[in-house]
């Protein structure tokens, strides 16, 4: 959730600043696993989490989101008004480790930064610079050792990609990304696949052309968000729908091997609103709001994902919901536990022992981001 205290409400509604993202998953096609359906009455364990500890760093600049790595390191994505867009802190000592991702036009600088931290025990994180159209793969251990941001690779991402969804590395020189123009609707389809494998271009390759509105039939940005995760055990790609309570699991060939649906099983309808665009501007039907799966984290044993559960009701950025759910899945997609938190959260991290849940929380778009810890 990257925004200034004054808060651009349009950015929040579109995706809570890059941390709530979806599309419609496909059905199982290769027989590797049956589809899974769950609801609230069949949840194996439901736990209420309340009264978290707030963790405060005295020298913090202007935080937008917090992530925990290695049980000891806090990676902070800062607001775009900061000179350094990434900071790192010691969790135990609450002391600064370093400020990185300087804002500027230098070879290792950033014009903007959305930071993706998929797993707390991984060696890399990803930084998307939407203003320059580039992705940076950051090696965290070398960054800590060298006291400077160690960018293993920086490349221009395809202009087809959704700018608020992470990529999935797919072998040397390739990545899998989510299409900005995809919508899970036959009526408003732009006839593009949800996921696609792309080649990483050479550093001096500027051949990719920006899509034009007239290349498509429908503008779907307001109804099109998703998150992508790599399961470290099965190596499958998990696709979290941002607007429907569905998850799809794909292999590297982008075959859907399993779908997970639940817990509310609601339907989503779309309308074409009037606008000044030369193509249809697609919204949710009857002015409703739908928000499902958003932030996630991957551990050695589980996948945790935030479920917002807004299925047609009002959503006010100035008065965010007072609770959020986090679902814990095993590597095969079976729901293990449901946690209900007493706050609205939009990032989640879990320590290696599955004892603590860390998150970023707000009560409104204008409030400062808070870094919280719950005991599981």
What does it look like?
The protein is mostly beta strands and 376 residues long. Helix content is 4%, strand content 40%. It contains two helices and 28 strands. It has helices spanning 9-15, 140-146, and strands spanning 36-37, 46-49, 53-54, 63-69, 73-78, 84-90, 96-102, 114-116, 124-129, 134-139, 151-156, 168-169, 174-178, 195-199, 218-219, 226-230, 237-241, 246-250, 256-261, 270-273, 280-284, 290-298, 303-311, 324-329, 335-341, 344-350, 356-362, 370-375. The longest helix is centred in the N-terminal third of the chain and has 7 residues, at 9-15. The chain starts with 8 loop residues before the first helix and ends with a strand.
Uncertain segments of ≥5 residues (pLDDT<50)? 1-32
Number of strands: 28
Query: What portion of residues is helical?
Result: under 10%
- Radius of gyration from CA coordinates: 20 Å
Mean pLDDT, nearest integer? 90
The coarse overall form would be: globular
What is the distance, rounded to the nearest whole angstrom, between the alpha carbons of the first and last residues? 24 Å
How would a textbook summarize the main sheet?
5 strands, mixed
What spatial order of strands do you see in the largest sheet? 1-19-18-17-16
Kindly name the structural category: mainly beta
By DSSP (H or I, 4+ residues per run), the number of helices equals: 2
In sequence order, what are the helices and strands, one letter per element? Answer: HEEEEEEEEEEHEEEEEEEEEEEEEEEEEE
Strand content: 35-45%
């Amino acid at each position: 959730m990257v925004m200034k205290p004054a808060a651009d409400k349009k950015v929040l509604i579109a995706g809570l600043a890059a941390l709530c993202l979806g599309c419609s998953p496909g059905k199982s096609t290769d027989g590797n696993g049956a589809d899974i359906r769950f609801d609230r009455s069949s949840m194996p364990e439901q736990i209420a989490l309340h009264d978290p500890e707030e963790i405060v760093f005295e020298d913090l600049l202007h935080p937008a989101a917090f992530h925990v790595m290695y049980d000891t390191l806090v990676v902070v994505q800062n607001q775009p008004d900061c000179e350094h867009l990434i900071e790192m802190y010691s969790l135990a000592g609450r002391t600064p480790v370093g400020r990185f991702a300087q804002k500027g036009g230098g070879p290792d600088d950033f014009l903007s930064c959305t930071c993706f931290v998929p797993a707390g025990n991984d060696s890399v994180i990803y930084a998307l610079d939407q203003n320059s159209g580039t992705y940076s793969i950051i090696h965290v251990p070398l960054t800590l050792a060298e006291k400077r941001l160690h960018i293993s690779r920086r490349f221009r991402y395809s202009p087809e990609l959704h700018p608020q969804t992470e990529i999935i590395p797919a072998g040397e020189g390739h990545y899998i990304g989510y299409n900005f123009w995809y919508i899970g609707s036959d009526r408003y389809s732009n006839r593009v696949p949800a996921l696609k494998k792309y080649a990483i271009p050479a550093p001096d390759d500027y051949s990719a052309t920006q899509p034009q509105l007239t290349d498509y039939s429908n503008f779907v940005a307001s109804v099109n968000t998703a998150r992508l995760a790599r399961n470290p055990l099965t190596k499958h790609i998990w696709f979290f729908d941002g607007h429907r309570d569905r998850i799809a699991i794909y292999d590297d060939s982008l075959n859907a091997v399993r779908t997970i649906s639940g817990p509310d099983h609601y339907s989503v309808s779309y309308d074409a609103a009037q606008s000044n665009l030369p193509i249809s501007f697609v919204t949710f039907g009857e002015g409703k709001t739908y928000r499902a799966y958003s932030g996630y984290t991957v551990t050695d044993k589980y996948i945790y994902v935030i479920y917002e559960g807004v299925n047609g009701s009002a959503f006010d950025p100035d008065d965010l919901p007072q609770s959020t759910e986090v679902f814990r899945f095993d590597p095969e997609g079976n729901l293990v536990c449901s946690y209900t938190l007493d706050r609205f959260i939009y990032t989640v991290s879990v320590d290696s022992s599955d004892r603590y849940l860390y998150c970023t929380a707000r009560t409104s778009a204008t409030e400062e981001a808070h870094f919280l810890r719950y005991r599981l």
